[in-house]
Design brief:
Layout lengths: L6 E2 L2 E2 H5 L7 H29 L15 H29 L1
Length: 98
């Protein structure tokens, strides 16, 4: 892990450590938010669309072959891929932080 004060992607580890202190914490959070606002926006839009579509509209989708199982299968696929994405990011973050 880099020493505190080394610059990595325009954010210093010193400012990262300040996120949890009462002094400078808000300024550090604002600096991080300015760098990652497109990602925050895309996550917000993804959650908004997800909450709009699942399960209300999704439960109305029917298949001739699968019948009433179609909503169950769609929800299972959604939850499985959501879980895989979260696990993937967890391991990627552990590689970066190690």
């Amino acid at each position: 892990m880099p020493t505190p004060g080394c610059i990595n992607n325009e954010i210093t580890y010193q400012s990262f450590n300040c996120l949890f202190n009462s002094t400078g914490g808000l300024a550090a959070r604002r600096a991080v938010a300015k760098l990652i606002w497109p990602y925050m926006l895309s996550i917000g839009i993804a959650y908004f669309v997800t909450l709009c579509l699942f399960p209300g509209i999704e439960s109305d989708v029917l298949s001739c072959a699968l019948g009433g199982w179609m909503p169950v299968i769609l929800m299972a696929i959604f939850n499985a891929t959501d879980f895989c994405g979260k696990v993937h990011i967890f391991y990627q973050l552990n590689k970066i932080m190690a």
